[in-house]
């Protein structure tokens, strides 16, 4: 069987068809690549960021665990620039304040580092002081880490003691009550008010059960 050679016009039509098909395929490939890149980089390309948020309400003096934290993607203009971006950055830290569900976790809300030492719960510029107390003067042993308390001092005075001079030293301008005590007197003075309890015994976290209070460690401003 003999083959009929293509005429010049037919050959040009075939070449034009191949060229158009190649251009169309190239456009389709470019569109697909653009769609894939846009989808994979959408969290950054659309101006959104992922941050660590509280999954539930978290009380102060609580140890953070992964189960109560979540990762949430938010528009960039709603993200606090100091917010943590990974659970691993905050797990095992102690909260210094109550955190509401949905709040972004910030460095100012938690201890500087993860750990179980009292040092991790002391704010910058503060000092912790350990005080031995009896259960009868600590609300029946119900004082818990995170509570705010007043520190009251009771001083035994000789009958001839200068109360005014003593007050000028221990509580200038503070509240004081002098009561008889046999032949002597007792001076009761409010030394500190609204002091934060960091720990009770060896516990840094508020307990769900009753505890016997033996030692509290109130946080006071550092001097010098």
Automatic annotation (TrEMBL):
**SAF domain location, by residue?**
49-111
Entry keyword set: Membrane, Transmembrane, Transmembrane helix
Keyword Transcription assigned to the entry: answer is no
Any signal peptide, and if so, which residues? none
Q: Which residues cross the membrane?
A: 17-38
Output the CDD domains linked to this UniProt entry: SAF_CpaB_FlgA_like
InterPro entries recorded: Pilus_assmbl_Flp-typ_CpaB, RcpC_dom, SAF
> Taxonomy-wise, where does this protein's organism fall, top ranks first?
unclassified sequences, metagenomes, ecological metagenomes
Protein name, UniProt field? SAF domain-containing protein
